[in-house]
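Our preliminary data section would be incomplete without showing what the modeling component actually yields. Below, a chain of 689 amino acids is followed by its predicted structure, encoded as tokens that our downstream tools consume directly.
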Amino acid sequence: MEDIYISETDREDLEKERYALAIGRIGGIAGESGCPAEVQRYFVRMAELVQLADHTWKIVEDGSLRRMNLPELQRLNRELYEDILPEHYGQSYANPDYAVDRLGESIGRQLSFLCAELRGIIPAVFEQNRFDMVIRMELLLEVYQAFVSGTPEEIPQMLYWYVSDYYEPEAQERTAQMVCPEQDFATRIVMDSDLHDLRYLYYYGEYVTDSELRTAMHLNGMPEEKIGLMADTFTEGYRIGFAVGNKDISLKKTVNIRYALGFERMIRRAVQNFDRIGLHPTIYRAGSSIFQGSNVEKNGYFGANPNKQFDYDHREDIALMLDGLLVERRLECQRNAYEKYKEQAAVFGGPAVAEIFGEKPFVPETKPGACRLSDAQQKLSVEYAGRAGLLQNAYIPGEERSFTIIAFPVPDIGEKYEEIFDDIVRINTLDYKLYQGIQQRLIDALDRGSTVRVKGSGGNRTDLTVRLHTLRDPAKETNFENCVADVNIPVGEVFTSPVLAGTEGMLHVTRVFLNGLEYRDLWLLFEDGMVRDYGCANFPTEEENRKYIKDNILFHHDTLPIGEFAIGTNTTAYMTAHRYGIEDKMPILIAEKTGPHFAVGDTCYSHTENVRVYNPDGKEIIAKDNEVSLLRDTDVSKAYFQCHTDITIPYDELGELYALTDGGEKIPIIRDGQFVLDGCGELNRAFTA
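Predicted structure:
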């Protein structure tokens, strides 16, 4: 690694020298023949990508990018992402199956990873981050030289040390982007650009399609008061989240804003709103490398996904090098990064997320050539996630931070995009006072019960009993939180953390989309609140289906607890989705409000269990723990899973939901998809509107 004690000027001079040497050497690859023909073809293709990036670097550096017209920017944007677009992916070395077929199993996987990692130079070009370009260019040359010198067996170690050596500066850069508002690459685009000149979308370096252009044009055509309504709902939800959680927002100085390209007009207004309450924005790019992780579900700001299958294929590339030593190295680097920025971390308030939905549903293909974590590596991955979560919580305590999430559709949702958008704005701004009162009636009824029974109807095989906590003082305590429009927008739901012992049965949904992935005929069997068996019907074999669930719902854990039971009350959102035929495109943020739902993983109060929380009626919410989360008092490494996945049963698949008292009294809440509890009839109006 380079000497971290050299001056900034000397560091920049060294990086420029390394860059010049690397790009010069890469430029000669096309004229050489030191490798087998197919391998040489691979390196020529990689050299072409780097040379295109170098050309783009110069355009950005000298300001030419800002002088290009829209068609020129579009051509450049497509060139940068062309290799992994679906129509070309079949013959791309980024496609692990193609790489394995052309280069052999072992070498193919390694070089497919290298191809994917090289694509990390695209963000570096636009951010003018020479270091991130240099380390990838040098890795390419190192691997190339291994073939030229006849020592390709050394490549696994080269990849290992690349990740190990550079995880330190990469962790520090990512941490700074999260907690330091001075890292303002995206903020400056949002705040300084002429947002009516759509060329600004191409200044990020993200892939841009008609969807982002149409989104920006749609927002540009909105009256200022509607933009204000959207932004105010977003930022006010964040503020209220602190108030409801009994947390002092005045102690915070930064908020991390996450959004999709095209929403800059709303985001600009949100930045202004946050500024008025003393919060400065941090805005970082969604991960695109081995250091930040890459997945179908994006975390940060992002443009169009050029190919979700590419992200899915490379989500476990860490399998090429993951071992116990690397886990320790990564944790050490993250600890050092948090320590370096501990003052900024202490005043970091948490994320404010503007999600999108409406994209074409993605059903992944299982690629035999893709990297997969071994059983031992899955355990290491689980261990790492747990320890990394605890480490973050040490520097950014959960009981002192909050969040908010809101969602809007994108043009891919269909021909009635503008109409749907307006309806979602309406849903996001429903009268929370109305829902608050109705939900209190639900809570009062549920608090009388010791269990809740949920049964599906028709083809839904759900039959699940949920055990509730015992209220020692029902006049002052409650099990359920009355959730309106704060951290999770829109209204409304009531939710609790169930007791695991006695929570039993089958959860089943005929079709659901979770974290960007489709599941067909998904079922989970619970015993004492823990997942004991599971399956779905996505793939031809039971083995493939179980692996799909373990990888993407259980996140490599052998089992997970039920962390949440909730009843969604937003029948308006449900019927809006039904009216437009977009049930399969609704995000979980809205879908969870359209029926009872269950979350597997951590509780909703993860890391904040000791903060006292009260409903508007003054009662304290006491159901914040379960038997697993309580282990934090004896062995914190076993208390948290760093995941929480909501699974909703829609009203039209719901046969019956009722509370049952210790004395055997049955208190009906929902029957045949309709609310039957006294005082909740208003919720049924949407079904016939």
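The first strand starts at residue 254 and ends at 258. The CA atoms of residues 34 and 148 lie 5 Å apart. Preliminary results of this kind motivate Aim 1 of the renewal.
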